[in-house]
Amino acid sequence: MADPNFSFLLLLPLALLLLLYFIVRPRPTTIPIKNRHVFITGGSSGIGLALAHLAASEGAKVSILALPFDKLEEAKKYIQLSTGIDVAVFAADVRDYDAISKAVEAAGPIDVLVVNQGVFVGGELEKQGLDEVRFMVDVNLMGSFNVIKAALPGMKNRKDRGPGSIALMSSVAGQAGIYGYTAYSASKFGLRGLAEALQQEVIIDDIHVSLIFPSATDTPGHIKETKTRPQLINTIMETYGTMKAEAVAKKALDGIKSASFIVPCNFVGLLLSIATAGLSPQRSFIMAFVEVAVAGIIRIIALGFQWNWYTYIHKWHGQNKGPKVLAA
């Protein structure tokens, strides 16, 4: 005779899986890429260029928007030579709504919008100028509003073109605050609220939002980043390593094609995604089960990370004779 306690333990996860199967929203779908128009901001270098190249190689019609124009031309030639596919290029500043609107109109109906632009100026808030703070917020957050607002009417008016996608490029610094990233983290955390609310607004138009969380990536921007951020965080981040832009682009495009709302790019990003799931949409009932089942364990791991970071911060300031820091 079967042990009733064992039967109960077996039935409990099965019952949870069944419940999650019925309640997860939005429902699963897929976003085709071949023969679709993919419009990418910040597409002249780094992750944006890798995404443009990958989408073109999968048969998409690709448009990229960035500054300056000469970098766009270099990107266009690179993609053309490596894939044989011509891409459209648009030189515009994401902070200029009128310029973005003209570029979007000239590009034509967009099926997949990738809001990828981003800037970083490292530094402790006390030592950072408000002009630097505004620069990051204006490009990373307000620039995203400008691009989406300009593209949304055309995306909503698509007829018989299948499901659409709006993907926003956040950062692991948009999942967890990081020393020396105060303004940058704020601008990237803002994208989450934008994405969660926007998904509710556009779901009836068959438009699906993805929020991508790359970790440190080997790009021209990352090289500049390591030169401006505090030495303390450089030392901490060295232990995590960097990803190649092509690897991030592959993870990002796979997430877009599966219409995943949260798209982590490595194992640490996956842990952070589970730890910060909250009220985020979840299409996969299997992933929802993982989030529910391991939430407590992930919280303990997260507290361990926090212990390590705060211990290191106190130790670093002590060794470098920084300002007196009270024990946390």
Q: Overview of this structure, please?
A:
The structure is a single chain. This protein is α/β, with parallel strands linked by helices. 55% of the residues lie in helices and 12% in strands. The chain has 11 helices and 9 strands. Helix 6 links the parallel strand 5 and strand 6 (207-213). Mean pLDDT is 90; it is low at 324-328.
Per-chain topology:
Blueprint: H1 4-23, E1 37-41, H2 46-57, E2 61-66, H3 69-83, E3 88-91, H4 97-107, E4 112-115, H5 130-156, E5 164-169, H6 182-202, E6 207-213, E7 217-218, H7 220-228, H8 231-238, E8 243-244, H9 245-257, E9 262-264, H10 267-275, H11 285-319
Question: What are the salient characteristics of this protein?
Answer:
alpha/beta; 9 strands; 328 residues; disordered C terminus; two-stranded parallel sheet; 7-stranded parallel β-sheet
Q: How far do the termini sit from each other?
A: 55 Å
Strand arrangement, largest sheet?
Answer: 3-2-1-4-5-6-9
Largest sheet: 7 strands, parallel
Radius of gyration: 21 Å
Derived structural class: alpha/beta
Number of strands: 9
Portion in helices? 40-55%
Shape: globular
Number of helices: 11
Overall pLDDT: 90
Low-confidence stretches: 324-328
User: Strand-and-helix sequence, N→C?
Assistant: HEHEHEHEHEHEEHHEHEHH
The amount of beta strand, in percent, is 5-15%
Describe the oligomeric state of these chains in a short phrase: single chain
